[in-house]
């Protein structure tokens, strides 16, 4: 689940966002429908030749009073910290500029692979005109044209060749999870407590000395976890962290890379607008979700009993009805041990596969409970159901006419699945398809 991260860095106007969109669209051409997913445009999943990765356009992360010099420094900082492969983008139209040199200098500091790409090389003449860029000292420049799409394949080939082996397409039995939430709810306190009480694996194999931002650990049952670090948890005080956009991007990035997301709420303040926004991201991403109510040691004037607070949560986050709720205190340590336990359970649920024969028994029983919907005199006929994916569990129901699959019937089928199997903590998707 942990994917390599690629960052595009460069002075303004070289074509970073154009290239970013181009690379994402190469992927969109391969991966079909992902309905209604809104994403921050500066961060997106991408894929090339079966290699999945996350792409960051650092140029989109700016702040109001930012001077170019400071902005560029922040971008390079983000790339060095976040990325496994950094693409420095320049433009053949202007040749090598002072700002290009400044960016290159900042990137000399990292041991991470940096690939130099020269954009706006729209025609053969321009493509031949890239030798000046050797002076940046970042190796062979690769000519590309973000707007025409030429050279992008060569660039992507270079990028995937530089992926660290342990992240490239490697699936193992480690469960990735993250702790997200608005500032001050207690994320760092929870993370530090969790890592204090479990066995943190120190990576000392060759090639893993890179600035690790995720922490692997094992619990007392020997199960393996990877705690995905979110903005500001263990690296406070960096210049870029004051940008709202960056912290949102960082949360999105953490969610994307997690199997399970722990959404932390603060019992002492109750639910705020920002909590709902963060919850919305997690829900849309289709990840497993656990709601963690922290500071349960404090006077509960806003929340009353656990039961009362649970009611408020269910009311405010209706779409998260599948998420279990844990009441914890990072201060006293109360019930913190439930977090890894619940993460394991949710991960088991989101990765389970249910046999088609069992699903069809369920369909048959369901048909006896509730008649299928009828629209304009035409009745929905449900033939069979099969699970097509895990994480999140996705089921395809073959029917006579998908138009007749009413929302309420879909909901009913999802509830039947939940009643018959443990899907605690994971969303479920049901897709109606016409039987051929
Ligand atoms: P950013 O500031 O680095 O993100 O740059 P943008 O992606 O916003 O692009 C800056 C300008 O360069 C825009 O007017 C783009 O249309 C243009 N541009 C981007 N890529 C190319 C390219 O490959 N060829 C040409 N000729 N123009 C490009
Ligand atoms: P973050 O911004 O979400 O990472 O939050 P922090 O972990 O920095 O916590 C914010 C503040 O809440 C700090 O002053 C913590 O000491 C306090 N805090 C965190 N967890 C608890 C808790 O369970 N109970 C109490 N009473 N205070 C807590």
Automatic annotation (TrEMBL):
Keyword Nucleotide-binding attributed: yes
Keyword line: GTP-binding, Nucleotide-binding, Repeat, Ribosome biogenesis
Pfam families: KH_dom-like, MMR_HSR1
GO molecular function: GTP binding; ribosome binding
Domain EngA-type G: residue ranges: 4-167, 175-351
Domain of life: Bacteria
Matching InterPro entries: G_ENGA, GTP-bd, GTPase_Der, KH_dom-like, KH_dom-like_a/b, P-loop_NTPase, Small_GTP-bd
Binding positions (GTP 2): 181-188, 229-233, 294-297
PROSITE patterns recorded: G_ENGA
BP term (GO), one: ribosome biogenesis
Record-listed GTP 1 binding positions: 10-17, 57-61, 119-122
Quaternary structure, from the entry: Associates with the 50S ribosomal subunit.
Family of the protein in this entry: Belongs to the TRAFAC class TrmE-Era-EngA-EngB-Septin-like GTPase superfamily. EngA (Der) GTPase family.
NCBIfam families, sorted: GTPase_EngA, small_GTP
Known function: GTPase that plays an essential role in the late steps of ribosome biogenesis.
Protein name, per record: GTPase Der
Organism: Lactobacillus hamsteri DSM 5661 = JCM 6256
The organism's taxonomic lineage, starting at the top: Bacteria, Bacillati, Bacillota, Bacilli, Lactobacillales
């Amino acid at each position: 689940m942990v994917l390599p991260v690629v960052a595009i860095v460069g002075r303004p106007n070289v074509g970073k966002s154009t290239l970013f969109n181009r690379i994402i669209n190469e992927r969109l051409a391969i991966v079909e429908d992902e309905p209604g997913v809104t994403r921050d445009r500066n961060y997106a999943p991408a894929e090339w030749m079966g290699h999945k990765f996350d792409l960051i356009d650092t140029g989109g992360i700016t702040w109001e009073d930012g001077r170019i010099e400071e902005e560029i420094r922040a971008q390079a900082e983000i790339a060095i910290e976040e990325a496994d492969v950094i693409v420095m983008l320049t433009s053949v139209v202007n040749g090598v500029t002072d700002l290009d040199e400044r960016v290159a200098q900042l990137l000399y500091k990292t041991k991470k692979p940096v690939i130099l790409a020269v954009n706006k090389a729209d025609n053969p003449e321009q493509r031949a005109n890239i030798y000046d860029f050797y002076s940046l000292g970042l190796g062979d420049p690769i000519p590309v044209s973000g707007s025409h799409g030429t050279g992008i394949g060569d660039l992507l080939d270079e990028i995937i060749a530089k992926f660290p082996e342990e992240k490239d397409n490697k699936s193992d039995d480690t469960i990735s999870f993250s702790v997200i939430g608005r500032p001050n709810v207690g994320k760092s306190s929870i993370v530090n407590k969790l890592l204090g009480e479990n066995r943190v694996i120190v990576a000392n194999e060759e090639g893993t000395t890179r600035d690790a931002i995720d922490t692997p650990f094992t619990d007392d049952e020997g199960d393996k976890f990877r705690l995905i670090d979110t903005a500001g948890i263990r690296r406070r005080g960096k210049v870029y962290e004051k940008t709202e956009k960056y912290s949102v991007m960082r949360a999105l990035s953490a969610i994307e890379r997690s199997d399970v997301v722990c959404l932390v709420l603060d019992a002492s303040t109750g639910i705020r607008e920002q909590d709902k926004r963060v919850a919305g991201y997690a829900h849309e991403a289709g990840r497993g979700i656990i709601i963690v109510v922290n500071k349960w040691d404090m006077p509960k004037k806003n929340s009353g009993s656990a039961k009362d607070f649970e009611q408020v949560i269910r009311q405010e986050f209706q779409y998260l009805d599948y998420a279990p709720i844990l009441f914890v205190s990072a201060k006293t340590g109360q019930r913190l041990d439930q977090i890894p336990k619940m993460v394991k359970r949710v991960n088991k649920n989101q990765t389970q596969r249910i046999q088609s024969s069992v699903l069809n028994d369920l369909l048959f029983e369901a048909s006896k409970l509730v008649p299928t919907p009828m629209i304009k005199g035409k009745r929905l006929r449900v033939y069979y159901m099969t699970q097509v994916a895990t994480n999140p569990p996705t089921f395809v129901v073959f029917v006579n006419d998908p138009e007749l699959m009413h929302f309420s019937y879909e909901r009913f089928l999802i509830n039947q699945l939940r009643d018959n199997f443990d899907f605690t903590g994971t969303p479920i998707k049901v897709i109606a398809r016409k039987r051929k």
